[in-house]
Design a protein that fits this description.
single chain, 84 residues, alpha+beta, Protein Inhibitor Of Neuronal Nitric Oxide Synthase, three-stranded antiparallel sheet, 2 helices, globular
């Protein structure tokens, strides 16, 4: 992921931490929805303090960082929309 997107994600997380009344699910939802709106659909987000992952993501669209007592994984997938 490029530095501007990574910095944007880290800033969003830090703003939530600074408010002192956050929860991890809210942070994941905020990141996913903000990145979908700002950079297009297909973003996925995992926030927690104990997890493993094995994912497929688009090139240059993966970010992992730790802050406070939790870690964040943010990545973009290639969505295929099926209309039934």
């Amino acid at each position: 992921m490029n530095q501007s997107k990574a910095s944007f994600a880290q800033k969003l997380v830090q703003e939530q931490i600074d408010m002192k009344n956050y929860n991890l699910q809210q942070i994941a939802k905020l990141l996913k929805e903000t990145f979908d709106k700002t950079y297009g659909i297909g973003w996925q987000c995992i926030v927690g303090n104990s997890f493993g992952c094995y994912i497929t993501h688009l090139p240059n669209s993966f970010l992992y960082f730790s802050v406070e007592y939790f870690s964040v994984i943010l990545f973009r997938t290639n969505l295929t929309i099926v209309i039934l």
